[in-house]
Structures are given as C-alpha cells and as structure tokens.
C-alpha cells in the first residue's frame, strides 16, 4: 500500500467507536474503506520503534494505526501470541467495552511493550491499544470477528498532554511552502463530495459511524 500524508491542519483522529464499527468491521467483512488510512501489518514480527515506517499514512503525530491478523499462541487456544524478536507486549489493566447505541460492539485492551525475554523484560514507554470486534451480527452473517484486530501504537512521554495543548505535531512551514496542489497524494486530494455521496449510497446501513477528519 502506498504511503500518503495529510495536508497541514488535517488529522486522522478516529474515535474508539469509529475504529471498531467502521474501520475494523469493514476490514473483517472485506468491504472497501473510503480512505485507505490503515496498513495491514503482522505487528509481532517487528519492534515497536520499527512500526512507524510501515504506516501508510505518514504524519508527525506520534500515533500509528494498523490492522493485524490474529496470531494464536496455541493452535487450539484463544490466547494471542504477542512475543516479538526484541521483547513482548504485556497486558495492562482490564479490557474496556466500546458501545454504540447502548450495544457492546468492541473491546479495547491496553498493552505495554517490554524489551527482553518474558517475564523479566524491561518496561518501555511504547503503548498499544488493541481493538477487538464484539459484534455478534458478524458471526451470524458468517464472518469471524477474531480474524483481525485494529491496533493503535504510540510512545508515551511525560504525564500526558498539558491542559490546552493542541492535538498533533507542530506545523513546519518549510515542509509545505514549495508543495504544489498537484503533488498531493490521490487518496487525499481525490476526495470529492459527490464521490462520498455515491460511496454512502452503495453501502448498506449497518450501524456504521463514519470516521471524522479534523480540520484545526
């Protein structure tokens, strides 16, 4: 998948519901996404610091999104194998439910990367939110809700965002002043309202919440 970048002021900042009920659901069902913003990567083959370069959407916002096929630790078991060549991802806290219209549609798991061999690896600042589909309508329709998970990766720094801090990386004028509009990636530059309307008309109404693109 070709890499793309968003113009200044635009952020790929979907909510938990949007990640599960739009992106992950359509991935599992084999449906087309309006914007190909999330790469499919076998996350556990790589160290977390190698993953940013594998994102199809390049940005200085220090968070990255990936579809990951489920890799079971044991062939007949339900536990996921989260070991990597450099360490392992360890669960932190309890799973949180994601609800849409008072219905549970997904689970959100927090994991921390530990460098070294389990169980004595060294905790790092790399964090993963793993989103899992819990929509039983997929199962009744013949789809495996466990085929993929959607993962958000970021590196924690400090105690979190300061009050009033703006979302996203600082603007660098030098990166954009000589860029012609014709140089914009087709995934972004080609989005027109009539194309969006046609896409929505061709899509069934299945409780999908469209992703939000923020313009600051």
TrEMBL record:
Q: Which GO terms describe its cellular component?
A: nucleus
**Which terms does the record give in the GO molecular function aspect?**
DNA binding
In terms of SUPFAM superfamilies, this protein maps to: NAC domain
Q: What is its main location?
A: nucleus
Q: Which residues form the NAC domain?
A: 6-156
Where does this protein reside within or beyond the cell?
Nucleus
Which portions of this protein are annotated as coiled-coil regions? none
Record Pfam families: NAM
**Keyword Transcription regulation carried by entry:** yes
Query: Its GO biological process terms?
Result: regulation of DNA-templated transcription
Instruction: Reply yes or no: does the keyword Transferase apply.
Output: no
- Keyword list, A-Z: DNA-binding, Nucleus, Transcription, Transcription regulation
Which PANTHER family does the record match to this protein? NAC DOMAIN-CONTAINING PROTEIN 86-LIKE, PROTEIN CUP-SHAPED COTYLEDON 2-RELATED
Q: What is this protein called?
A: NAC domain-containing protein
* Organism lineage string: Eukaryota, Viridiplantae, Streptophyta, Embryophyta, Tracheophyta
